[in-house]
Amino acid sequence: MTSTTSRFEQNSTASNMCGFTLMNSQVGVLIANVLTRLDNVEVTHLPSMIRADGKNRFDVVYADVDEEAGEEEGWFNAAEFEEAMSTHYGRMVHLDDRTIMFANPEDAAEYLDFDLKPVT
Hints:
This protein is α+β, with helices and mostly antiparallel strands. It is built from 4 helices and 7 strands; from the N terminus they run βαβββααβββα. α1 packs across α2.
């Protein structure tokens, strides 16, 4: 009897990946266009959505989306981002000028008020 490896096999190791899905809308395409310029982000266009999958950490800088849209600075913000995004994985932190995606919660500790020291 031979054993085969399934692509659905459980793997408990950290993927070091984070990301989100966007609606395939005008704003979603603008965000995707900006993210395609990042070396550690893979953008996949699907019929009804756009996937953005990044390695370790990536930032959605609102000024970059403003520029891509040809709008004045301040047009794109966290509320616009939340409206275009469907779901996410990893840790997400909204700041005034960007949204940061983290694959590992330890990397987002300073933003989340997460103490990494063990309690004794």
